[in-house]
């Protein structure tokens, strides 16, 4: 198959995939007697038409950046980490334990400690599947799937029997102290002129963006990153070059788990301000689609996370203001995943043929 120009591979293929997903989504809406134009208007207005809508879109975007980066980091070591959901839930446990440990004097101290706790707990939960892959040959996909369910069950046990305050009915931890309250975007000077109403998006957004830069720097600007990418391209060649596979697998998965765990700072500490069941809210699985659509590049992940943040908030608006079922959000997400993942090669092959035909018709090209 002819190679596509770099710009076409990075921008045109995802754009066409999105367009195909939008067309199929419109046909689905028409088939149930709904207006695609009305649905699009409601989604855009609800997610992007006001500062309040942007506050929710950016809140979801923050979580998806972390989990998308998690999948991306492992992917470059040729590992498909689909355990981000469980790693994020254990990261939430780390956040809760840190936040409840002390009467924090200021949110900056609490944020730094909670971020570290989330990263450590997420990395620890990823370390077991990583070890099984590196030393026992257990497939990382199978073990990370299993550990999602183990994490969910473990968290339910802790919330019901250990962390739940006496006299409280719902399975949740105690509320975090006032010193662990993170400022939302509407609390930040300057941004409060834009976000005039309370919104869930908080300072964790800036940590997510910073981590995108950190991941890019590690993978493309360091020797370790070169070793990870070399191992991901060809394990036998990497072994021949003296790269330790056990070291690479462990480092890549620990970093991947840490990134997934850090997601919980956004919703556990920044929004709920206590640990709840299903604190990850499915973001671990959405991170897979975000990484695929972002071409496993940190800056692509940020853009893809923004798209899925729009779909999440826009889908919620559909359920509130129209008779279109909120499940349509899941349909659209599934179509985006289908065309950017499973059918990506179909779009790529079609564009390659078009570019090859165009080049063959240029003067002087045989």
TrEMBL record:
Main subcellular location of this protein, as a coarse class: membrane
Keywords: Cell membrane, Membrane, Transmembrane, Transmembrane helix
Membrane topology summary: Multi-pass membrane protein
A Pfam cross-reference name: BPD_transp_2
Membrane spanning stretches: 12-33, 53-75, 110-128, 140-160, 199-220, 241-263, 301-324, 330-351
Cellular localisation: Cell membrane
Protein name (database record): ABC transporter permease
Organism of this sequence: Tabrizicola soli
Lineage, highest ranks first: Bacteria, Pseudomonadati, Pseudomonadota, Alphaproteobacteria, Rhodobacterales
């Amino acid at each position: 198959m002819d190679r596509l120009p770099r710009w076409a591979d990075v921008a045109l293929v995802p754009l066409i995939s999105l367009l195909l997903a939008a067309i199929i989504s419109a046909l689905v809406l028409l088939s149930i007697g709904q207006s695609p134009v009305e649905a699009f208007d409601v989604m855009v207005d609800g997610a992007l038409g006001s500062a309040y809508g942007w506050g929710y879109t950016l809140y979801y975007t923050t979580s998806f950046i972390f989990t998308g980066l998690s999948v991306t980091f492992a992917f470059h070591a040729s590992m498909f980490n689909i355990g981000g959901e469980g790693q994020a839930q254990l990261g939430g446990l780390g956040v809760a334990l840190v936040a409840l440990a002390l009467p924090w004097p200021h949110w900056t101290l609490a944020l730094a400690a909670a971020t570290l706790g989330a990263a450590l707990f997420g990395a620890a939960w990823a370390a077991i599947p990583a070890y099984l892959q590196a030393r026992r040959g257990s497939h990382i996909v199978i073990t990370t799937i299993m550990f999602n369910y183990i994490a969910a069950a473990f968290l339910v046990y802790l919330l019901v029997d250990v962390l739940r305050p006496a006299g409280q009915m719902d399975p949740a931890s105690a509320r975090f102290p006032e010193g662990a309250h993170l400022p939302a975007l509407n609390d930040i000077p300057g941004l409060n002129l834009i976000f005039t109403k309370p919104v869930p998006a908080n300072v964790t957004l800036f940590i997510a963006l910073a981590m995108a830069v950190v991941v890019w720097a590690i993978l493309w600007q360091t020797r370790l990153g070169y070793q990870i990418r070399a191992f991901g391209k060809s394990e036998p060649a990497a072994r021949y070059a003296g790269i330790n596979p056990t070291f690479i697998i462990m480092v890549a998965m620990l970093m991947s788990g840490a990134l997934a765990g850090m997601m919980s700072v956004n919703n556990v500490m920044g929004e709920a301000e206590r640990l709840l069941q299903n604190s990850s809210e499915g973001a671990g699985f959405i991170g897979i689609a975000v990484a695929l659509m972002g071409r496993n590049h940190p800056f692509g992940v940020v853009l893809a996370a923004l798209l899925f943040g729009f779909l999440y908030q826009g889908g919620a608006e559909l359920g509130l203001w129209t008779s279109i079922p909120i499940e349509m959000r899941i349909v659209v997400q599934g179509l985006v995943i289908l065309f950017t993942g499973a059918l990506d090669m179909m779009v790529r092959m079609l564009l390659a043929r078009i570019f090859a035909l165009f080049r063959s018709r240029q003067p002087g090209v045989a």
